[in-house]
Amino acid sequence: MNILFASSEAVPFSKTGGLADVSGILPKEISRNENITLIIPYYKNETSPKIEAKKIDSFDVIINKIKYKTEIYKKRIDKKFNVLLVSQDLFFARKFVYGDSSTAYPDNFYRFLFFQKAIINFIMKNKIIYDIIHINDWQTSLIPMLSKYSKNSKIFKNSIFILSIHNLAFQGVFEKYHFKELEIPDKLFSPDYIEYYNKINFLKAGIIFSDSITTVSPTYAKEILRPEYGYGLNGLLKKYSFKLTGVLNGVDYKTWDPENDPLIYKKYSIKTLANKKINKIEFYEEFNLPFKIDSILAIAITRLSKQKGIELLVHSFNKLRRENINILILGKGDSSYESVLAKISKRSKKIKFLNLFDEQIAHKMQAAADILLMPSIYEPCGLTQMYSLKYGTVPIVRSTGGLADTIEDHMPRTQSGTGFKFRRIDPNEFALTIKKALKIFQNKNEWKALQINGMSKNFSWTSSANNYLTLYKKLLKKEKINERID
Ligand code: ADP
């Protein structure tokens, strides 16, 4: 099997969130069995890692009659796994991947149309036959449609297109006047195809023209068929639910395991769980935090967006004033949340805010903390809570999407469960759940059992990758859906 995996970000090259974690590790896991190529934009800025890659091709991509010189670089990871980087400095040599945390770049339409056209041109020029073309989110969603209407669509005749939706809220919606720049038949500007309330919607094209759609947890796959979670596409997804499945993401335990994590102060495992406390002591010292070592430390490591339940978090603070709890938030995102949290952090001795995106601190916090707070309004999968389980940091989550699928509620009688779940979007219910956890924290044995239950869980990518492989194989046996669409 020959697979192409297209994504707009992937670790270790670029990262704004979970999509990068998935795109970095899933192809690697799949390459244990099959040939796979990951294709991503070649981002360049002061903080991007130095990449040793070889230039293997160059050609022009034409948009609006303008020629953009395109270079393709190749980095061989191992025998069955290569990374291709699409280089065009006008579009990708910038400070941010999509724009700063509150505003998208105004030319994102061109940046990601360019990326997708470059992928298609590269395949056509080099006559590469991919059995599977796995696309991810709106930034690569046009590929099935554009390739179908391209000059040399024959080359894609036997390719199966799979779209993975990592977050339905981001759809790539652009003004109508861009339609002609796509150079596809006029009839496609209709609500049955790419039109979306008189605009164009990249993700919609992906949903319609792909042979299969996956999303990153089974619960989210069901939730997005409902208006509360469907972001305007629930009707369309319902229509195509016959090709929709949920495949849970996994964890890269090479990067996220306290037993082998070079970024934390003191390594530990279930057997040496007492060492976790050393991480707390050292962390407080390094960051000069005024917290007491024996008080519980609750953390949040998150994009600061409405999705992540930041309002629930902020409104719960008042209700926890009398409790023996310290809260530390690591986050970047909406400026309104950043300023509210900065103000609270300045006033309070028990709540602190680090307004950063910093992987190393994220690791140190996971090792130092007792509790993770993740009150997401919706959560397609969520990786942070799975990392927490491995670090013996007990998650308190809202029961939605991947959080519902990966966290089991604590059952005092049977000492089972891995965390605490609440359902309603209500700061009272969230605070009550935190208080319940605080009570259990007092009973050292019960708490330890909870930590060990979580640390023993295995959400490795191997099983997720096997699920994708099974899906690929099943699809290759079936007739292409894409072929049947006029
Ligand atoms: P999402 O993809 O919706 O942002 P996930 O939980 O799936 O949420 O993945 C988030 C990833 O980004 C995790 O690897 C997490 O550690 C990381 N992350 C989020 N915010 C920060 C931050 N402020 N600093 C460092 N890492 C962060």
What can you tell me about this protein's structure?
The chain is of the alpha/beta class and 486 residues long. It folds into 2 domains: 2-250 and 462-484, Rossmann fold (3-Layer(aba) Sandwich), CATH 3.40.50; 273-458, Rossmann fold (3-Layer(aba) Sandwich). Helices cover 35% and strands 21% of the residues. The chain has a 9-stranded mixed β-sheet, sandwiched between helices. Strand 1, helix 1 and strand 2 (35-41) form a beta-alpha-beta unit. Helix 1 (18-30) crosses helix 17 and helix 10 crosses helix 15 (427-442). The chain is globular and about 65 Å long. The mean pLDDT is 96. Bound molecules: adenosine-5'-diphosphate. Adenosine-5'-diphosphate binds at residues 17-18, 21, 301-303, 330-332, 356-359, 362, 381-384.
